[in-house]
Amino acid sequence: RVSVLVTAKNSTKANYAYHADIFTDIQAGVDRAVLPFTSIIEYAQGAPLRNATSDEDSTVDWNFFEDIDLVPIDRQPAPGVHKWVPLEVRTSIFDDRREHLAFNNRTYESPLVPTLTTALTTGYQAFYPDAYGFKSNPIILDPMTDIEVAMFNNDPNSHPFHLHGHNFFIIHRGTIDNDPTKYRASGQYPVRRDTITIPPKEFAIVRFTADNPGAWLLHCHMIWHGEQGLMATFIESPYQIQNNTRLPQSVKDNCVSMGIPLSGNSMGRDGIDLPDEPRGPFPLTGL
Fold first, then answer.
1. Which of the residues 66, 153, 224, 276 has the least number of beta carbons within 10 Å of its own beta carbon?
2. Contact between 228 and 89 (Cβ < 8 Å)
3. Is the pTM of this model over 0.90?
4. Contact 60, 19 (CB under 8 A)
5. Strands 192-193 vs 168-175: parallel, antiparallel or unpaired
């Protein structure tokens, strides 16, 4: 998603077509030309339709552009790096004989107790990643630290990764085999987005500042990939969450009706009491 400003022409001599393609590279077998979205910017009813930036007809290049080359109107320099978070994407058959997607060979599964509830109710132990459950892929962020997330896509599919709670700066793009012809770096004022698509065997490095306390998912925006486990959880500023956040009564009522504990760690217990927490499945070796 990108917001743009378009300057209107000071003329009613022609109307202009605009065009958008669905990015279908993440779904094999779908031709993007089959699913176009087109419409018209109309300056005058009955005026001729043109597709050029002048009054002369011309062809238009519909090829995709590199998002890292964009420069935002609101120019901000990228933050530095206080914490580095490497995330390697893989798909494999796991030891439950199912195919899973995973960050760092850890496939996501929702905890019994919602992550935000755990952050609110476990006191000082809310700073311990173990309290949120192994399979929630928890990553604790200190307040106002600058975070760099490096995502390496070793999967044979593209993945559009979406981060809740933040817009991140896109810093670098490239290939995992370090092909110098495909390496790209941002300029002084990087583009900011909340979603980035990473093609197969490529990487992207993004940064943001932890200035928004909460429990925020990073996940593939293809819903079934999330269901296959391609998610991680940033728990940002747990103590600030406890000081500034309260669960609405409607949320508590829903939890009670669904049998979900209203306090405790990922299993509804005190602190990091998780002796029998299930930690699998794990990838089978040799695949």
1. 276
2. no
3. no
4. yes
5. antiparallel
